[in-house]
Amino acid sequence: MPYKSRNNNSLVPLVFVSMKAIIRVLLIGIILMYLTVWLISSTAIKLRVDSLLYSSLSELVPKETFLMLLSQELTGLRVENEEALNNDFDWLESVTNVSLLDARSLFGREIPGIENYHTHIAVAGKGTDITNLPNESPAPTEDQLKDQEIDQSQIDEANHNSGEGVEEIAEKSVYIYHSHSWEAFSPLIKNNDSKNPASTNEKVNVIAVGSKLKQELEARGIGAVQDKTDINQALKDKSWTYNESYQLSRGLVQEAIAQNDDLTYLIDIHRDSMPRSITTKTINGKNYARLFFIVGKENKNFEKNLKIAKELNAKLEEKYPGISRGVFVKTRTEGNGIYNQDLTERAMLLEFGGVENNLVELYNSTEAFAEVFAEYYRKDAVEVNAQ
User: Which residues touch 107 (CB under 8 Å, ≥6 apart)?
Assistant: First the structure.
């Protein structure tokens, strides 16, 4: 025991001496660093060091890296060199699945919640940024779908004189469907108390929007077919989950295409879960439910479908400024990534409005889209016939 005590006492001065030595080295290092900085910055050596440093860096680091760094701050530079920036770093992304142009690809798997922000904004509508990206609603609960009381007065107001004099078009070229057919709108359900309204009633969910679109297209001479399958019930019948919604709707689309080769345009209609302040726009004194396009990146037709979405979006904004929230690209990381868009080169997923939009606003936007789509459709038909 006495030996142990002497050994412990001898450690105290040893630790004290070591701490003094460390502090002395740190102080000397700091002083030398300041002296070096002063010497370089206040004498002619600065010019030589700067020149040597910059020339060495420019030789060692590829010019594309500087372009990438500058483009993060200069939007114009990023827009002008978008293709070069994407191509130059494709090799890294293909090997590591990390993009130097998107820090989310590095931290998204490590920080909870970041994965929600993987969606790429291909075209940003007015006010669109990463704080209000598209957000899918969850699957409905059994209790949520029970004993719903719809607001018939709103439905009657929106459907006043709707569809009168519209003739059925024999030749069908547009297929309208709803992978999340239950997505509904709060103003149309009197006793709704959910932030994500859902209903199997075709008058208050996205099927109503699809029906209006079909009607507007046929009024413009474009034949359309609408599938009104209750996807929620169909999933239950197969003992499938919410995550298999697109697999189920895929079967419906494939069956329709097999029966009619002329169905070249596929339109999957949804609604977003954002509030009214984000999903509504007043244009010339008229309220519109803002819409946007989702393009799946994980399929062979990605580029062609993206091109169509961008063209339609541009025309919509030209005629109805602010009606679109933009064009968004999704991979499997933040969604399905395909959205049945591999089945044709003219497929799109459209989201009309949000949970708080009423039917009049939704119909106004549907009419606007049908007008722009009809123009694009005829132009596309001319180009196809020419080929």
Answer: 114
